[in-house]
């Protein structure tokens, strides 16, 4: 049942791209509320399993249609030095939603909880009624007057650059210049279509990022991160602890929420590779502890029945500093400008497919490995494999310009022995409202 939501997201995300490009980012979020409300209402009123599954599919469509334009909207209206922090907040809200759902599931009947979920769909749609549309999209559609009003609303508290020019006016000029650059770039590829895309993915800058990300997604999904997230109650019950599984699932969600907030700071201060190494090693240690203790509990050789749950909590802490958030964040950094959009879509689809397989085969894997303890040891081994894989192939992108990352893939595939240049470049850059995250003017396309 948990995997039903995942399998519908890739195709729904493609449709959301068409909707937001043609109707606007905020309108796409509003439209997303329709299948969401219908889906949760069907679940609340369902009299059989097929209706529940169909409702879940509608909720998945709503999730894809609402999430993608939300991310694009934030990216387009936020200042460059705030984008990474705002993007890191997204997992925090996911964790908060899970905690609220766990709490609701503990106290409420599942039908009542389904009705309550409609509130979290309707409220964002109402908020979108008072927000202004993305200035970038408005300029793209030739709605220049609305774009000016939107920029004035977004930057109304921003100090003016000087007495003659407001920050909103300067941003409007920059957006117009960037839009013209994109139009000029698009003219170069008119008529190339699918053939051009295939050619780009045949280059080292196309296939290398895709291969590396696919491997990273494999280790991420089969390390147990999302299995413990979606099947937390079943996972804890099979460990035979003396802690209420519903209470434990709430604790797991709360820990993930707190650590997601902390990761907003952590991801801005520490290198990607260092975080991945620390994350996977600690995850392996705590999952090995959980697996060993689960076996001892089953054999009756220990009375410390709470250890697997505590180990799982620390496993969650370790995952949130590296292996959980970083892989999906790397998608936008790895691909060159020419195929960044389609590269993101393909990579995210692969991520969702692997997550679907991991969730769908959870009980099969448990039977194959002979129970929860061996499965937990398997997850620990996968974490070790993820650490080794990242050490060999994952490039360091912290503080690097996107063009430098593209240049790396032209000649490199195995990272071992590569000289890390410019890692601390961002830390030594003087911030300016018109500078991007790497110290470059926003007037220059950060390719």
From TrEMBL:
The chain crosses the membrane at residues 51-74, 86-107, 113-131, 210-234, 246-267, 274-293, 305-330, 342-363, 375-394. It holds the Pfam family Sugar_tr. Residues 427-447 are annotated as: Disordered. Keywords: Membrane, Transmembrane, Transmembrane helix. The keyword Transmembrane helix applies. It is a multi-pass membrane protein. PANTHER family: MAJOR FACILITATOR SUPERFAMILY (MFS) PROFILE DOMAIN-CONTAINING PROTEIN (PTHR48021:SF24), PTHR48021. This is Facilitated trehalose transporter Tret1-like isoform X3. The lineage of its organism: Eukaryota, Metazoa, Ecdysozoa, Arthropoda, Hexapoda.
């Amino acid at each position: 049942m948990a995997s039903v939501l995942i399998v519908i997201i890739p195709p729904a995300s493609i449709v959301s791209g068409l909707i937001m490009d043609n109707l606007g980012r905020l309108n796409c979020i509003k439209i997303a509320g329709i299948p969401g409300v219908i889906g949760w209402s069907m679940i609340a009123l369902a009299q059989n399993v097929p209706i529940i599954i169909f409702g879940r599919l509608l909720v998945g469509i709503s999730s894809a249609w609402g999430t993608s334009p939300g991310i694009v909207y934030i990216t387009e209206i936020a200042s460059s030095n705030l984008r990474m922090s705002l993007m890191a907040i997204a997992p925090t809200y996911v964790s908060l939603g899970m905690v609220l759902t766990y709490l609701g599931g503990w106290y409420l009947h599942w039908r009542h909880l389904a009705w309550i979920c409609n509130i979290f769909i309707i409220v964002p749609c109402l908020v979108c009624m008072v927000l202004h549309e993305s200035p970038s999209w408005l300029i793209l559609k030739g709605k220049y007057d609305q774009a000016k009003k939107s920029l004035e609303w977004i930057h109304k508290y921003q100090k003016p650059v000087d007495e003659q020019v407001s920050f909103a006016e300067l941003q409007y000029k920059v957006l117009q210049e960037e839009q013209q650059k994109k139009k000029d770039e698009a003219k170069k590829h008119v008529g190339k279509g699918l053939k051009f895309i295939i050619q780009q993915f045949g280059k080292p800058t196309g296939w290398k990022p895709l291969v590396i990300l696919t491997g990273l997604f494999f280790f991420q999904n089969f390390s147990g991160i999302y299995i413990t997230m979606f099947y937390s109650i079943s996972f804890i019950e099979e460990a035979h602890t003396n802690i209420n599984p519903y209470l434990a699932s709430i604790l797991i969600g709360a820990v993930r929420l707190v650590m997601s907030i902390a990761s907003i700071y952590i991801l801005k201060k520490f290198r990607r590779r260092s975080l991945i190494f620390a994350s996977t090693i600690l995850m392996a240690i705590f999952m090995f502890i959980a697996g060993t203790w689960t076996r001892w509990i089953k054999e009756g050789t220990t009375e410390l029945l709470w250890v697997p749950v505590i180990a799982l909590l620390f496993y969650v802490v370790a995952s949130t500093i590296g292996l959980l958030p970083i892989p999906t964040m790397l998608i936008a950094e790895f691909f060159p400008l020419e195929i960044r959009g389609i590269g993101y879509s393909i990579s995210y689809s692969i991520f969702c497919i692997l997550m679907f397989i991991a969730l769908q085969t959870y009980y099969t894997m448990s039977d194959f490995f002979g129970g929860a303890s061996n499965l937990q040891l398997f997850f620990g081994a996968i974490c070790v494999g993820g650490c080794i894989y990242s050490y060999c192939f994952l490039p360091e992108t912290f503080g690097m310009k996107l063009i430098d990352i593209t240049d790396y893939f032209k000649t490199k595939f195995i990272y071992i022995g590569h000289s890390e240049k410019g890692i601390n470049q961002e830390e030594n850059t003087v911030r300016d409202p018109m500078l991007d995250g790497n110290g470059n003017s926003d007037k220059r396309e950060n390719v």
